[in-house]
């Protein structure tokens, strides 16, 4: 099966110039840095111990940043490498200041590229985040005797069923994981069935507050615009949910003349269609990228950029999380919860059921079934102050997880240093 996988990767490589060219035109690839995916690094490897983190995109990157800042304090670590696969994650990385951390794009998962990548970077420990399972690099790490950690591991039933269908292949991949740290009990059970030998639960990294957000300068003009508005936010929305939220705005606009609905779609490539759909409802819509000076007559403020959700969570006491009314699995509610917002969601939250269960106990989350119930809850919560004590509990959990994770990695690093 691994041989077949390599054939498929080789076919991909044959067509990669066309694929990359198309993605560059679509502004989904960096026209200069795409070479990193073919193992042409743009950063230098410094001497000494290197910790390598890999996460697919923005969410994974943001979840590890507090940990990365803590690990930078360890004098035994001379360099930290973060890899990701998307252009949006690379853009987000630029907004943060690091002393010894660099970013590169993750190489195509061919066995030859994997060995070439490891030969150049020589990581002391490799840490893959959430659902990132790559056969070639996993095999190469095992051959090089480099410890491989699966941090904040997340495996859904759908993903498990796929791996379980190819049992011998999956066993050959998952056996290379030195230690896994699942973010929930569901993943814990799946990892056991996939024959991961060492597993430890420390909690979900997304409970951790990112104190480095203060390094991003606040948008004073935006804050001034939002100051005198009654604001609620719909985040990580999927196809169809923007219309539901716009209808909620129509319902509440009669009562709150200064109402502003902020919509942050999960995928910005849908922005043009969203604009057309909202225009059909005769609502005034403004794009965040247009840098508006005034929002006096704006109904819907559409965020068509990545990595700026914090700005809007800070300005909104009510946040609806998408992919839960229309779609499957839901989106992670921890970020808006950390910022003190009441979190609304639809019935489809299977991917984050453990987190929602906890937040529900703290009376932070509220379930809706459509435009009518969403209207009622926004109306109720937009004028009711939150119970801040419950949000402090989230921060306390996050601090504990951060300390335990940092100590775990430092201990593993010390063990590796002793071997050399």
Notes on the structure:
By secondary structure, the chain is an alpha/beta fold. It is 44% helix and 16% strand. It has 16 helices and 13 strands. It has helices at residues 2-25, 58-71, 87-93, 111-121, 135-143, 157-165, 167-174, 185-193, 220-227, 241-253, 271-279, 309-314, 334-338, 353-361, 371-381, 388-419, and strands at residues 49-54, 77-84, 101-105, 125-129, 148-153, 179-182, 230-237, 259-265, 285-287, 300-302, 318-321, 342-345, 365-367. The strands form two sheets. It has a seven-stranded parallel beta sheet. Strands 3-2-1-4-5-6 form a six-stranded parallel beta sheet, sandwiched between helices. Strand 7, helix 10 (241-253) and strand 8 (259-265) form a beta-alpha-beta unit. The longest helix is centred in the last third of the chain and has 32 residues, at 388-419. 39% of the residues are buried.
Mean pLDDT: 92
Residue fraction in strands: 15-25%
Fraction of residues in H or I helices? 40-55%
Shape: globular
Low-confidence stretches: none
* Helix-strand string: HEHEHEHEHEHHEHHEHEHEEHEHEHEHH
The biggest sheet, with number of strands, parallel, antiparallel or mixed sense and barrel status, is:
7 strands, parallel
Distance between the termini: 35 Å
Number of strands: 13
């Amino acid at each position: 099966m691994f041989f077949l996988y390599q054939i498929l990767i080789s076919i991909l490589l044959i067509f990669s110039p066309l694929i990359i060219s198309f993605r560059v035109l679509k502004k989904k690839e960096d026209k200069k840095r795409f070479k990193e995916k073919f193992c042409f690094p743009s950063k230098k490897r410094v001497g000494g111990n290197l910790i390598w983190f890999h996460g697919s995109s923005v969410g994974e990157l943001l979840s590890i940043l507090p940990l990365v800042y803590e690990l930078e304090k360890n004098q035994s670590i001379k360099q930290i490498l973060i890899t990701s696969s998307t252009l949006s994650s690379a853009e987000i990385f630029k907004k943060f200041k690091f002393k010894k951390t660099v970013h590169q794009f993750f190489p195509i998962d061919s066995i030859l590229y994997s060995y070439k990548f490891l030969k150049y970077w020589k990581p002391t420990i490799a840490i893959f985040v959430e659902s990132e399972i790559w056969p070639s690099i996993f095999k190469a790490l095992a051959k090089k005797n480099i410890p491989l950690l699966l941090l904040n591991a997340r495996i859904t039933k759908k993903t498990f069923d796929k791996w379980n269908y190819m049992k011998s292949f999956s066993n050959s991949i998952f056996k290379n994981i030195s230690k896994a740290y699942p973010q929930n009990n569901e993943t814990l059970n799946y990892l056991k069935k996939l024959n991961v030998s060492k597993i430890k639960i420390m909690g979900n990294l997304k409970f951790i507050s990112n104190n480095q957000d203060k390094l991003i300068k606040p948008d004073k003009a935006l804050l001034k615009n939002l100051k005198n508005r009654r604001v609620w936010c719909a985040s990580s929305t999927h196809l169809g949910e923007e219309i539901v939220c716009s209808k909620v705005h129509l319902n509440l606009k009669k009562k709150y003349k200064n109402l502003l609905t902020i919509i942050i779609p999960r995928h910005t490539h849908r922005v043009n269609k969203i604009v057309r759909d909202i225009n059909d409802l005769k609502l005034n819509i403004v794009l965040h990228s247009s840098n508006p000076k005034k929002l006096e007559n704006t109904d819907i403020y559409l965020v068509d950029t990545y990595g700026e959700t914090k700005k809007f969570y800070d300005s909104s006491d009510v946040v609806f999380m998408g992919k839960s009314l229309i779609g499957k699995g839901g989106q992670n509610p921890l970020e808006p919860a950390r910022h003190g917002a009441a979190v609304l969601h639809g019935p489809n939250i299977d991917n984050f059921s453990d987190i929602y269960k906890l937040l529900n106990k703290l009376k932070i989350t509220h379930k809706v079934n459509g435009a009518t119930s969403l209207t009622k809850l926004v109306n109720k919560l937009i004028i009711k102050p939150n119970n801040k004590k419950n949000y402090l509990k989230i921060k306390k959990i996050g601090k504990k997880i951060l300390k335990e994770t940092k100590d775990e990695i430092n201990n593993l690093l010390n063990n590796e240093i002793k071997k050399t």
